[in-house]
Amino acid sequence: MPTPFLSVQGLSKRFPGPKGSDPLTVFENVNLGIEKGEFVCIIGHSGCGKSTILNILAGLDEPTDGAVIMNGREVSGPSLDRGIVFQNYSLLPWLSALKNVTFAVQARHRNWTKKQVHDHSIKYLEMVGLTGGAELRKPSQLSGGMRQRVSIARAFAIQPELLLLDEPFGALDALTRGSIQDELIRIWAGSDQTVFMITHDVDEAILLADRILLMTNGPYARVAESVQVDIERPRVRADIIHHPDYYDIRNHLVEFLAKRSRELAGKRDEDGVSEPNVIRFGLNGPVANKSNKGAGETPARARVVNGAD
Ligand SMILES: Nc1ncnc2c1ncn2[C@@H]1O[C@H](COP(=O)(O)OP(=O)(O)OP(=O)(O)O)[C@@H](O)[C@H]1O
After folding, report:
1. With the C-alpha atoms ordered 257, 259, 264, 266, is the resulting torsion angle positive or negative?
2. Which residue's CA is minimally distant from atom 7 of ligand 1?
3. What is the pLDDT of residue 291?
4. By the number of CB atoms within 10 A of the CB, which of 34, 60, 148, 199 ranks highest?
5. Enclosing H/E stretch for 28
6. What is the side-by-side strand order in the sheet with 82-85?
C-alpha cells in the first residue's frame, strides 16, 4: 500500500514525573495515516494527549518513540509547510492584523516584492471578511472572533501543505463560530490542503470532517477509532441534521466519549494492531473494518445523549 501523505508511526510520548516519580506515558504506539487533502478532526477527553500529538505533527515537540513522516520526510522542527492556529490566536500584539499576515507571508516568500506580499495578504484577509479598515487595527483593538480570523488568514496565507488547528473556535460565541467554520471550509475546499483539527464539539466535527479520530482516556491513551463521515459536501449546517446518517454518527461519537473512552482506557487493541478501527455508517448502520467491532455497541438510531465532555 502506498504511504499516505502524513504517516504517524509508533508514536509515544512520556513526560518525566515530578521529583523522580514514575514518568507519565500520555500515549503509546499511535499509528495512523492521513491522505492529502483530507480534513481530519480528533476528539477525546481533556488530557488524553491531543495537543501533544498536534505539537509533534507541527514539529514543536518531539515524540519519545516513533516518527511522523510527511511527504516521505521525517518531521523534525517547525516548518512553513505546516501552519498552526491555536485557540488563543497567538498574534504579535504590536503589529496590525495586516502586518501579522504580511510578516508570515514575507517569511514564506522571501523573493516577493512588497506589493506581492501585501496583495496576497489582503486576499486572505478578505477571504475571512477582515477588511474595510479592520486590517489596520492591532489585535487588542479587535474582537475575539476577528482575532481568530486573522490567525486563520495568516495560517492559510502561507499556503501550508498541512494546517494544524488546536480548538480554533473554542473561545468564540456560537454565531461567530458558525461563520468562521463556514469560511474555513470554503478556503479549505478551494485548496489541496490537509487539515488536522482538535475539537471538543461533536457537531462541529461532523460538519467539517471527512474523518473523526477518537482517542481513549489517558494515560496510555490511543486512537481507538476512525469514524468516516460520508455525508456529501457542501454541508449546510441547517440541513445536515436531516441526513439519515447524522444522528447515528453523532450518537456513536457521544457514546464513545461518555462510555467507551473510559472503558478502553489503557487497553491495547484486541488484535494488537494499535491502528484505529475504521467505522463507516450507511443505510444499515455502522460497519467496522475489523471483525465488525463496534457495530453492536452503537446506541439505537436517533437516540441523542447530551452532555458528554
Ligand atoms: N510539558 C509537559 N510536562 C509534563 N506533562 C505534560 C506536559 N505537557 C502536557 N503534559 C501532560 O500530558 C497530558 C496530555 O496533555 P495534552 O495537552 O496533550 O492533552 P489534551 O488532550 O490536548 O487536553 P485538552 O483537551 O485539555 O487540551 C496531560 O496529562 C498533561 O498534563
Report:
1. positive
2. 15
3. 37
4. 148
5. strand 24-34
6. 82-85, 162-166, 194-198, 39-43, 211-215, 223-228, 277-280, 287-288
Q: Grid coordinates representing 156?
A: 492559510
**Going by DSSP bridges, is the β-strand pair 65-70/73-74 parallel, antiparallel, or unpaired?**
antiparallel
Residues 76 and 147 placed together within one structural domain of the fold: no
Q: What's the chain's average pLDDT?
A: 88
Residue 241's domain spans which residues?
A: 6-81+160-297
CB-based contact 255:299 (threshold 8 Å):
yes
Query: Averaged over 231-254, what is the pLDDT?
Result: 95
Ligand 1 center–CA 308 separation, angstroms: 20
**Which has the higher per-residue pLDDT, 277 or 293?**
277
Do 54 and 107 belong to one domain? no
> Which phi and psi (to 5°) does residue 187 adopt?
-65, -45
Per the listing, cell 506580499 goes with 117
pLDDT digits (tens, 9 = 90+) for 189-208: 999 999 999 999 999 999 99
Protein residues with CB under 6 Å of any ligand 1 atom: 15, 24, 26, 44, 46-52, 218
Check whether 293 has a pLDDT greater than 60: no
Mean pLDDT across the stretch 283-293?
55
Choose the final residue of a domain: 128, 159, 190.
159
pTM of the model: 0.89
Separation between Cα atoms, residue 184 and residue 147, nearest integer Å: 14
Instruction: Identify the residue whose cell numbers are 453523532.
Output: 250
Could you tell me the distance, in angstroms and rounded to a whole number, from the CA of residue 272 to the centre of ligand 1?
Answer: 25
ipTM of this complex prediction, to 2 decimal places: 0.98
Say which residues have a Cβ less than 8 Å from residue 238's Cβ, sequence separation at least 6: none
Domains identified in the chain, total number:
2
CB 129, CB 183: distance < 8 Å: yes
- The protein residue whose alpha carbon is closest to atom 25 in ligand 1 is 46
Question: Per-residue pLDDT tens for 12-35?
Answer: 999 998 887 889 999 999 999 999
Ligand 1 centroid from CA 53, angstroms: 10
